[in-house]
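Consider this one:
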Amino acid sequence: MLDLLRPLLAVCSYLLLLLPGGQGRIPLYNNGFHYQDIGNGDGNGEIYFNGVRLHVESPQPSVSATRGSSVTLPCHYRYEPELTTPRRTRVKWSWLPANTISALASPEAFAGETEVMVAMGNRHRSYGNFRGRVRLRRSAPGDMSLVIDELQLNDTGRYRCEVIDGLEDESVTVDLELRGVVFPYYSQKGRYHFNYFGAQQACQDQDAALATFEQLFAAWEEGLDWCNAGWLADGTVQYPITAPRDGCGGVNLAPGLRSYGQRHRLLHSFDAFCFSASVKGTVYYLQHPAKLNFTEAVQACASDGSQIARVGQLYGAWRLMGLDHCDAGWLADGSVRYPIAKARANCGPPEPGVRSFGFPSLYLKFGVYCYR
């Protein structure tokens, strides 16, 4: 029977190779078995089924890390039954940015994946912003785990490890998250002045990035309550409510994320929800003999060998490093804030947080937070 099926399989394989994008493997088709390439065939270009199954697995569906650190995304492959001689396989790591991930990933979403690295044997190539920052761990046979160095804010998302053997391939995904803090941010002009791209830029200016839905949801679970709607990385507009009230969806609505859905990224204006991760340097309150206006504050930090801190840096230092200081100080955007890790009398509300004075006149006198 097998001899009768071989010509049919060969014809089908040949036709599939002629399809656009064929290039030696069958896209989007997987029955759990791999096919031997012509180097393992009968010498006449025939590809035949050999009953060995390729498995690609990851013990961790998601990994979290801190900004600036190195992280390993686990991926291993094996054959069943186990092979006695090694086979030449190729691995491809690709990435779907966090702001493009939907609850139910569609084929269209996967088409938007960006190549991170491809490797075969001792040869490998990395791409784009990942060039020079990624490598394979290879700690044991079948280990294709991806190591990413110098993690950046925008590295979050879903990574796909695809192992290719001839015409057969198997893949597994690993989600990468950064530990950090979400904070609401609005313009000096007041509420609702950012279109999507303005919100994106505003977060970047504060050493942060637009928060993802997952990041905002986690912040809400931890108690974030904010009644102004803000842009998220996926282009939706939402806001988190822990204490339902009038003007914030109404008292009869359960706590949760209120969503305006997708909005026009150019024409509609809202605030922003930014995400800040840990920073390499140190944020500190500058001990100065006198209070300072904004211009003097910038100069004072420079004279101390530092620069005036940005809002995202202050939030990251408060949340991830325990920065606690009860003196209001200037920040780079012209706002005045102070971080409280341990709530106490005369330091604002009875819970921890970053207190804000908004954007006072630049001639008023305050302290300053510097970053070194």
